[in-house]
């Protein structure tokens, strides 16, 4: 049967069976891969259309790439739930949609109390033909000079404000979580003095508590200042 293009129409939404989740343009979705051994594809829905009878729904999508699917592959600082917004657009049958998901900004992802199966985050756009990232550089932290992976716990030095992996400062995660104060090697002698001066004031206890929580939530301010060390991505 010949399909006339003019008979296709745009839909406001599409209902995924059997969950009855309603998908609308702008939503992020998980899509079934042709190879069942692979993880679901992540995509942003741009448009939903059907034939003239309202059947054979198709979705226009913009793919998110997982680090494994990028030219440079997965790197140590990529989070397990990290995806890159690509310039790769596609049209897919709507029945490959498995369900809805959420692609958070980097900042809001690091503030989640719990990361669900359907939570992802995106901090880079990705050019699928050249493998280039935007932004093309990322701040690095710690003695190991790595970009921040939000899956990893980091502690902040109260002296220089740099962030450190517990393993890189010879600590385990439990020890790091119990820390009230942390000064890195370079800052430690000055830090001890400051601590002794403020030791007996109750107010400083309150401050320490908020600082400590902030520190353990890890770095959410990913802005790159002129003095911040960076690594270039390609
Ligand atoms: Zn490190
Ligand atoms: Zn320091």
Automatic annotation (TrEMBL):
Keywords tagged on the record: Metal-binding, Zinc, Zinc-finger
Domain PHD-type residues, every copy: 139-190
Keyword Metal-binding assigned: yes
Protein name: Chromatin remodeling protein SHL-like
Region (Disordered): 195-217
Domain BAH per the UniProt entry, residue ranges: 21-137
Protein origin, superkingdom: Eukaryota
GO molecular function: chromatin binding; zinc ion binding
């Amino acid at each position: 049967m010949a399909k006339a293009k003019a008979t296709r129409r745009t839909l406001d939404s599409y209902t995924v069976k059997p969950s009855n989740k309603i998908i609308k343009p702008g939503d992020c979705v998980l899509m079934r891969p042709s190879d069942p051994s692979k993880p679901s594809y992540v995509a942003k829905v741009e448009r939903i259309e059907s034939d003239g009878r309202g059947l054979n729904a198709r979705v226009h999508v913009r793919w998110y790439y997982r680090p494994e699917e990028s030219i440079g592959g997965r790197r140590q600082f990529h989070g397990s739930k990290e995806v890159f917004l690509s310039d790769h657009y596609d049209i897919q049958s709507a029945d490959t949609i498995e369900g809805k998901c959420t692609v958070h900004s980097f900042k809001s992802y690091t503030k989640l109390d719990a990361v669900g199966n359907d939570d992802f985050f995106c901090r880079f756009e990705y050019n699928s033909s050249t493998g280039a990232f935007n932004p093309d550089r990322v701040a690095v932290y710690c003695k190991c000079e790595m970009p921040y992976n939000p899956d990893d716990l980091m502690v902040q030095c109260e002296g220089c404000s740099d962030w450190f992996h517990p393993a890189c400062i010879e600590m385990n995660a439990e020890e790091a979580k119990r820390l009230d104060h942390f000064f890195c090697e370079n800052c430690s002698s000055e830090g001890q003095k400051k601590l002794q001066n403020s030791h007996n004031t109750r107010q400083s206890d309150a401050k320490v508590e908020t600082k400590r929580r902030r520190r353990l939530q890890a770095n959410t301010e990913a802005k790159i200042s002129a003095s911040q060390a960076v690594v270039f991505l390609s």
